[in-house]
Design brief:
Elements lengths: L43 E6 L1 H4 L4 H12 L8 E6 L10 H5 L12 E4 L9 H20 L3 E5 L15 H16 L2 E3 L1 H11 L16 H16 L16 H18 L3
Parallel strand pairs: 1-2, 1-3, 3-4, 4-5
Helix pairs in contact: 2-7, 6-7, 6-8, 7-8
């Protein structure tokens, strides 16, 4: 992602998780993080990141759509807010400002704060060290206010991105898992879901053709399904949300299944 203009997108909406198939929170093996949200699910969520969050009408809107489709009556119960800066690593964000109650229109402290670093942070020692330090600092502030930290594992690049390489996702996975375990954060395995979707359907388009980095609408939809399954412990399979008909039914079903399989495998369920 190129650092360009700064875009702060602040948007809120309401919803809660609906009764669906409950996934167990069984620990994963080989060091994968096991920390999950409370069983009842978070009610106030802040997304802190970059363009991966705000592309395609913002990730948090799609997560809301999935939950609202599961239980329309709960739409106004949960508050989502996104604070995003194009191309930004976590160091660009003022977490104390963002977490101050009422600052972003949410009067109560956030239950969960989802953090995403720059998509290339795992590719250099300096950027990786900065990501780790900021997660430690941000996590302390989040916990001080009674919240829980979640780390959004970004997807690997593909061609024509100059950062694309066969082992990029392994570096990204290692960084997010190790830092997540260190601070006791939830880790949302979006990057692994992208990898699995491409494994099953090599011709699928989850990245924008012009840069091989930013997600297409299908990529954002897949990410939203993974966020939902990870935070609420419920399967997205069978959900009717299709972004006003813009996500093909067959494609939505495929992406839901990939998200479900990825999250189950990641958490050793």
């Amino acid at each position: 992602m190129r650092i360009a203009i700064i875009a702060i997108l602040l948007a809120m909406s309401g919803c809660v998780s609906a009764p669906q198939q409950q996934l167990s929170h069984t620990p994963a093996t080989q060091g994968s993080p096991v920390n999950q949200s409370p069983a009842d699910g978070p009610t106030r969520i802040l997304f802190v990141g970059n363009s991966y969050f705000y592309y395609n009408n913002s990730l948090h809107n799609h997560v809301r759509g999935i939950i609202s489709a599961a239980d329309p009556s709960s739409e106004k119960s949960l508050e989502f807010t996104s604070a995003t800066i194009g191309g930004a690593p976590l160091a660009y964000h003022n977490i104390q400002y963002l977490l101050e109650p009422g600052r972003l229109g949410t009067k109560q402290p956030f239950d969960v704060v989802i953090l995403a670093g720059n998509s290339t942070d795992a590719l250099s020692d300096a950027a990786r060290a900065s990501f780790r330090q900021k997660v430690i600092e941000f996590n302390a502030e989040i916990m001080k206010r009674g919240g829980k930290t979640a780390l959004y594992m970004t997807h690997a690049h593909v061609k024509p991105s100059t950062s694309a390489s066969p082992d990029m996702i392994r570096k990204v996975e290692d960084m997010y898992v190790s830092v997540g375990n260190e601070v006791g954060a939830i880790v949302i395995p979006v990057g692994l879901a992208f990898e699995e979707a491409y494994r099953q359907r090599p011709d699928i388009k989850l990245h924008q053709d012009y840069d091989g980095s930013h997600p297409t609408l299908n990529g954002t939809y897949l990410a939203a399904c993974v966020v939902y399954a990870s935070l609420y412990g419920k399967s997205p399979v069978g959900n009717t949300y299709d972004y006003y008909g813009k996500v093909d039914k067959e494609m939505a079903t495929f992406l839901q299944k990939v998200a479900d399989e990825t999250v189950r495998k990641f958490y050793g369920r």
